């Protein structure tokens, strides 16, 4: 983000940064939680749950991410004009640069996600409850107010619907 802002400032190159929050869905990265959890449940392997499962993440379904990108494409930043005595706002810049959070703006309990996957696959997960990892945070969620103001969009796929769609794809892809 800093490099993009510097280039936007120096060369007037419009730059839009997107912060994606825990994206999941078909064709996602196999090293992400949803894939790892689904695979572990189906293979009867333990799922590592840090902070003894007391974690929350803002899970964002891939279709919502795609919709946000499509809506933002025609909204190149122009930069903000500032009065000389204006209080600096870290979210705005005189450079043609912006950053948007793309997430559901609603943290979900990790244990709820595991329970939904268990329901979808009809199997019980083996849970390995572990302490908090150094440097991790117990909860994340996206403030999407800027996204809503700019393009009138707020990701809205519920975790229940998203996991049902992901699980159907996962079963089909792996021929289960």
UniProtKB/TrEMBL annotation:
Cite the Pfam families for this sequence. Epimerase (PF01370)
Instruction: Report the InterPro entries cross-referenced here.
Output: Epimerase_deHydtase, NAD(P)-bd_dom_sf
Against SUPFAM superfamilies, the record matches this protein to: NAD(P)-binding Rossmann-fold domains
Q: Which UniProt keywords apply?
A: NAD
Q: Where is the NAD-dependent epimerase/dehydratase domain?
A: 2-78
| Coiled-coil spans in chain | none
Q: Transport: present as a keyword of the record? A: no
The record's PANTHER family line, in alphabetical order, gives:
EPIMERASE-RELATED (PTHR43574)
Q: What is this protein called?
A: NAD-dependent epimerase/dehydratase family protein
Species in which this protein is naturally found? Candidatus Afipia apatlaquensis
């Amino acid at each position: 983000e800093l490099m993009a802002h510097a280039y936007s400032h120096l060369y007037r190159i419009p730059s839009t940064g997107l912060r994606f929050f825990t994206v999941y869905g078909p064709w996602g990265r196999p090293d992400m939680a949803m894939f790892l959890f689904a695979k572990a449940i189906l293979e009867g392997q333990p799922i590592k749950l840090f902070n003894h499962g007391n974690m929350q993440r803002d899970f964002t379904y891939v279709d919502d991410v795609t919709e946000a990108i499509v809506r933002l494409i025609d909204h190149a930043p122009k930069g903000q004009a500032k009065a000389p005595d204006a209080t600096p706002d870290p979210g705005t810049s005189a450079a043609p640069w912006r950053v948007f959070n793309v997430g559901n703006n609603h943290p979900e309990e990790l244990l709820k996600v595991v329970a939904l996957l268990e329901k979808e696959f009809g199997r019980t997960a083996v849970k390995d409850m572990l302490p908090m990892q150094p440097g991790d945070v117990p909860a994340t969620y996206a403030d999407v107010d800027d996204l809503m103001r700019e393009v009138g969009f707020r990701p809205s796929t519920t975790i229940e619907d998203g996991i049902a769609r992901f699980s159907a794809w996962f079963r089909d892809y792996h021929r289960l």
